[in-house]
Amino acid sequence: MSERIFSRTECLLGAGAMEKLAACTVFLFGLGGVGSYAFEAIVRSGIGCVHVVDYARIDETNINRQLLALHSTIGKFKTEAAAERASDINPLVKIIENRMFIDAGNIGNCIKGKVDYILDAIDSVESKMALIEFAHDNDIPIVSCMGTGNKVQPERLRISDIYETATDPLARILRQGLKKRNIKSLDVVWSDEIPLLRGERLPINNDGKRVPASTAYVPAAAGILMASHIVNRLASIK
Asked: DSSP label at 162?
C-alpha cells in the first residue's frame, strides 16, 4: 500500500498523530445514515482497527441517506458492505464484523479487548442507554448521536454535553435515564432544529411502524462530526 494515501492528513496532524491513529481501536455501533458516514471518515483518517456492530441488511429505502446503500449492495449485511469498502480504501485497516442487535444482556460479549473509543449511532433508545452505561461503567470514551431524522438544516448540528441539549426528543429521554444512573456527562452530536414531522405525519415502513423521514445530508453531517470528534481526540488534536 502506498504511504501517500494519508499524506494530506499527515500534513495537518503530524506523523506522530498518524501513528497514534493507526494503533487505535474504535467500536462503531450502527451503520445507518449517521454511522456509515462516520465509518467512512474514520477509515479515511487512518484508524487502524474498527469493530462494526449492526444486525441489519441493506434495503432499497436506505439509499437516500446511507453511504453503504447502493443498488449493487441491496441485501448485503451492512457490516459486510462496510468491510469490503474499508479494505478498498485502506488495505491495512482491520475491520471486525459483529452482526447483532445489542442490549444490556449481550453488550459485554460484544465489547472486549482493546477499546480506545466508542461511536454510538444506534436508533434504539434501550440499546443506546445500555451502550452508554457500559461505556461509563468501564471508563471508555464515547460519543453518541441524537436524533437526525425529520430535520433539514445540517448547519444546526453541534457537539456538546447532553445536559446542554434542548429541543431534541431523544436527548430528553436519555437525560432522564442518565440522571437515574448517576451518569453526569456524555458527549453528543445534536441539533436544536425542531423536527418537521411528528406523530401521525411520520411515514410508515413495511412493518407498519412509524419511522423518521430523512434527508441525505443531515445524518451524513452528524456522522462526520462524530468522526472528527473521535479522530481529533485520539490524535491529541484540540
From this structure: G
Model's pTM, two decimal places? 0.94
Quote the distance between the C-alpha of residue 34 and its chain's center: 6
Q: What is the CATH number of the domain that holds 206?
A: 3.40.50.720
1 pLDDT tier (thresholds 50, 70, 90): very low
Residue labelled with grid coordinates 480504501: 89
Residue type, 224: I
Residue 183 CB neighbour total at 10 angstroms: 18
How many helices (H) and strands (E) the chain has is answered by: 8, 7
Q: Which residues contact 16 (CB under 8 A, 6 or more apart)?
A: none
Say if CB 119 and CB 233 are below 8 A apart.
Answer: no
Cα–Cα distance, 118 to 2 (Å, whole number): 29
The H or E element that residue 12 is part of is: helix 7-13
- DSSP one-letter code for 58: P
Domain extent for 128: 3-234
| CB neighbourhood size of 44 (10 A) | 17
User: How many structural domains compose the chain?
Assistant: 1
Torsion of CA 229, 230, 235, 238, to 10 degrees: 20
DSSP per-residue codes, 85-114? HHHHH-TT-EEEEE-----TTTHHHHS-S-
Asked if the model's pLDDT at residue 120 lies above 70, the reply is yes
